[in-house]
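Input:
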Amino acid sequence: MFGIGLIVFRETLEAALFVGIIAASTRGIFHRTRWLTLGASAGVLGSIIMASAMGRISAWADGVGQELVSVVILSVAIAMLAWHCIWVGAHSADMAKDARHVGESAARGEQTLWALAIAVGLAVLREGAETVLFVAGLVSGTTEGPLMLAGTVAAGLALGASVGWLIYAGLGKVSPHRLFAVTNVLVLLLAGSLASQLARTMSQAGWLDLLDNPAWDISALMPNDSVPGMVLHGVIGYDASPSQLQLAFFAGTTLLIWLAARQLKARVSRRRSAELSAA
Amino acid sequence: MNSSSKRKAITAVVIAAGCLMAGGVVQAADPEVSLVIKEHQFDPTEIKVPANQRVKLNVHNQDSTPEEFESHSLNREKLIPPGGKVVIFVGPLKPGRYDFFGDFNPATAKGVLVAE
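Output:
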């Protein structure tokens, strides 16, 4: 039973950290709860559908259908996070300055809410489908009582969700005019983490046959299945022995997003000063 | 072209490149090994593969419950639905022993891959 709860906890944890960070990065933005709830609910619904179709999906593309679906999910999620990072990064100075005019700054944040809702939905879908499949397998295969099983699954879910809530509450302590800068770095790292998973998925499916050697191995120091390892995996995609390709994807993605944000920021401030001198 | 569409374009290129490689002849040369999951155990529990060469693992889950093939040292993790057959590429590996296990039944589903 303990093992079952642990697996549910682990699967929930990753999605919960993701949602916690996104929720913190949209604090105070109009309608954000509605949008994020919509995204997460769609993710849960999608998980059930995907889990029930997993048999067929797995057989696609000669046995690497799961990776095909993962590559699409990860790529779209990365694009959504990138869009948010670039937009917020470019406008963060105004948003912080306008922190007193909560209304205005919040209205600006609404611009990327749809993208974050999609990213949240996809994160929940990725972890959720696996959990649903696992739990469904238990219902048909276990000898334990259904009540005991339901309780264990609920406890795993609740414990995972509470870690997501913890990171959300912790980020709530950041002062409002620094919040966007801090959460934007976290969203950038989430994008890098997804890119690293994208690299591994493509190696696993045999679509990329390069740099699949471990860059390092610190599994003796902090194994993947230790609590700090699991939490760091959810936040920055920690892997005790990542492949060189994973590192390259992580670095490349975060660098590209950062450069794009910087370029847009320069353009935004040029336009602003042009407007000022015209007035 | 704005930054977001640039990013999307890059993503599209990466996916396209991936799909091209999937259809290529690269896979044909990879040695294959078969692995069966039955009653929450791997069969065989020890598989030998050539080192320094990518290997194609064909995994067949004959149980009525799902399993997850997982290995930290191989850096692999993949669901195998009840009755499902999946493919997992590993390596190229340095000579050595690589543990793997079934994440949903870690007490019984254990195995080792030996690259030599």
